């Protein structure tokens, strides 16, 4: 089994590489090695590698900056997946593509299922929705699109690492308390993606996140508490709960973007793992 990983330098890409199973040949490309918006590079590199499965972890992920450079966000998140899917359509291969909870508007109060209608409220969400639609239109029987949420790991730029740094630098921190989601470690998601690599029968649209839900404020409190226990973090920082309106961000974000993973969990026999349990694992691993 030969697998190509795109976006290998990102936080999910790194976890996919760390969890490479035995017996799989993995060829990884960073953005510098293969730009997914460059059709010539896709053809040349994929023709040479001839992968049975492609994992696309490459994306434009800067949610606020996307409001200022929508063309680039759409090139990477919509055109890129379309070009990859075109290659898969013409070759004996499959695609596992990653999408986001931000395709939803956040008006629900119970976990989003795959049949819920997307209605993105920012450029990033719109560009990612166009990307997943492009993939599923071109290769519906050769692609699994996995929407996930609030990714973080002990490497890369993410909420946990930002909090750990700011806890030591600041006396007080204001954190949004009216956006609720499910923090998900990239290693937990990578584990699921590797299960999908071996399952050519699983195609279509799926949701997968860690179990449970929390606001950014609640997540920050948990990081502070668990880092205190696990790493002996002695932070006297005061955490203040604020509303989204009190926090000036360029992009509007959904108020509630919890995903129900039950459809995919049932297919791959994945036990639900609570986000706090995996936060502890992540803090212990760094
Ligand atoms: N982060 C989250 O909270 C979150 C939540 C839900 C879903 N997701 C989705 O999960 C996936 C993985 O996200 P992540 O957190 O691992 O993102 P990340 O750390 O930002 O990694 C994305 C990677 O994509 C690469 N990339 C950007 N433009 C590219 C291009 N034109 N060609 C090839 N590679 C390119 C980046 O390389 P450079 O750094 O060199 O540009 C980077 O290594 C994405 O599909 C994302 O939309 C993320």
The CATH homologous superfamily is termed NAD(P)-binding Rossmann-like Domain
Low-confidence stretches: none
Instruction: Please tell me the total number of domains.
Output: 1
Helix content: 25-40%
Cofactors, ions and other ligands in the entry = NADP nicotinamide-adenine-dinucleotide phosphate
Percent strand equals 15-25%
Structural class, please? alpha/beta
Compute the gyration radius: what is it?
Answer: 19 Å
Discrete helix count: 9
Tell me the total number of β-strands. 12
Mean pLDDT: 96
General shape:
globular
Q: Termini separation (Å)?
A: 31 Å
CATH architecture: 3-Layer(aba) Sandwich
| Highest-level CATH class | Alpha Beta
The major β-sheet equals: 6 strands, parallel
Order of helices and strands: EHEHEHEHEEHEEEHEEHEHH
Structure description:
The protein is built from 9 helices and 12 strands. It starts with a strand and ends with a helix. The longest helix has 20 residues. By secondary structure, the protein is α/β, with parallel strands linked by helices. It has one domain: Rossmann fold (3-Layer(aba) Sandwich). NADP nicotinamide-adenine-dinucleotide phosphate binds next to α1, α3 and β4.
What is the element layout, followed by pairings?
Elements: E1 2-6, H1 11-18, E2 25-29, H2 39-49, E3 53-56, H3 70-89, E4 94-100, H4 123-138, E5 143-148, E6 151-152, H5 159-169, E7 172-176, E8 180-181, E9 184-185, H6 186-197, E10 204-207, E11 214-215, H7 216-231, E12 238-242, H8 262-268, H9 275-285
Residues 6-7, 9-13, 31, 35-37, 57-61, 76, 80, 98, 100-101, 128, 148-151, 156 line the site of NADP nicotinamide-adenine-dinucleotide phosphate.
């Amino acid at each position: 089994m030969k697998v190509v990983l795109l976006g290998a330098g990102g936080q999910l890409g790194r976890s996919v590489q760390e969890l490479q199973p035995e017996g799989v040949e993995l060829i990884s490309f960073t953005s510098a090695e293969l730009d997914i918006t460059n059709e010539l590079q896709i053809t040349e590199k994929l023709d040479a590698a001839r992968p049975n499965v492609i994992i696309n972890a490459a994306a434009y992920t800067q949610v606020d900056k996307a409001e200022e450079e929508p063309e680039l966000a759409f090139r990477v998140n919509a055109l890129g997946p379309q070009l990859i899917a075109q290659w898969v359509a013409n070759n004996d291969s499959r695609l596992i593509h990653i999408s986001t909870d931000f395709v939803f508007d956040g008006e629900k109060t119970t976990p989003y299922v795959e049949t819920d209608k997307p209605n993105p409220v920012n450029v990033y969400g719109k560009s990612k929705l166009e990307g997943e639609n492009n993939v599923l239109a071109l290769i519906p029987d050769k692609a699994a699109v996995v929407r996930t949420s609030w990714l973080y790991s002990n490497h890369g730029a993410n909420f946990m690492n930002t909090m750990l740094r700011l806890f030591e630098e600041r006396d007080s921190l204001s954190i949004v308390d009216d956006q609720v989601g499910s923090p998900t470690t990239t290693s937990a998601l990578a584990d699921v993606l590797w299960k999908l690599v071996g399952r050519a029968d699983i195609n279509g649209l799926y949701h997968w996140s860690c179990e449970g839900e929390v606001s950014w404020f609640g997540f920050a409190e948990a990081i502070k508490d668990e880092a205190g226990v696990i790493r002996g973090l002695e932070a006297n920082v005061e955490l203040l709960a604020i509303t989204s309106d009190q926090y000036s961000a360029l992009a509007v974000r959904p108020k509630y973007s919890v995903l129900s993973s039950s459809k995919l969990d049932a297919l791959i026999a994945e036990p639900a793992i609570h986000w706090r349990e995996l936060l502890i694992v992540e803090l212990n691993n760094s």
